[in-house]
């Protein structure tokens, strides 16, 4: 994903313009559990619990990108994914746009297909623990929190 730093105003702030700004993430429910990934994020110098996902290629349907990224990062495959909408994770800083998906159609497991720079741990957490982590701000990733909320609004989760 190519980056272009630019300064569009006189404030001195730098903005990031991505050549491929479309990203996808998937919130997956497996029985009474939700599936997450955790990986180290250098900008915040911390391990962050997130949803599996990544960039969508320009020619790729968003649902196909969501399924592909889900499989690459978790090792699980999934069938139907339900679109929850999109969000701008940091519109004051970047043109990045994330499309949120939900699935409860998790299928076979295989080896993760990680990129060279990725080290990802997969977690299954009980839904009740996830609600607690949202409530006490242990889940700090905006995409994860938004996907849980929108999944509840769409009737996919009972919180």
TrEMBL record:
GO terms for molecular function: hydrolase activity. InterPro entries: NUDIX_hydrolase-like_dom_sf, NUDIX_hydrolase_CS, NUDIX_hydrolase_dom. This is ADP-ribose pyrophosphatase. Pfam families: NUDIX. The keyword Cell inner membrane does not apply. Residues 17-147 form the Nudix hydrolase domain. Keywords: Hydrolase. Its cofactor is Mg(2+). PROSITE patterns: NUDIX, NUDIX_BOX. One of its GO terms (biological process) is ribose phosphate metabolic process. Signal peptide: none annotated.
